[in-house]
Amino acid sequence: MDNFIRMTFPASEVITPQVTGQVLNLLAVADQTGLISMVEVRLRGFIESLRPADEETRKKLDFGCSWDGQTALLSEIRPQWNDPTRILELPFAKLRFVKSSKIWKLYWTRASGKWEAYEPRPESTELHKLLTEIKNDAYGCFLG
pTM to 2 decimals? Predict the structure, then answer.
């Protein structure tokens, strides 16, 4: 996972759906220079919506994301129960973009650690629809 971009976000950097035109222009310029993509912005906003507001709670439970340009891993971040100095990143969802068909695929991790397609909605051409599936989590596969 050395080629992944690790994204953690301070509360002051919340990206909301009401992003102004000026910010979108800046993001487009940043994307052209390879600094950030709209996918990263969407993932960043989604992860920020999951994170606890309280800083103290974030030390016990937080969320993060890695993105390599094709695959995003969404993870729960928490201290190990018997050794709080050891921080664990536990992936709970994988989103993979298939460039040839321009389709996003959604996976969840089984107790065995194997990834499996999320059957109620295994794919979509729109990332936000799969993020909504994760947030709604009708079957308790992602966030319990």
Answer: 0.75
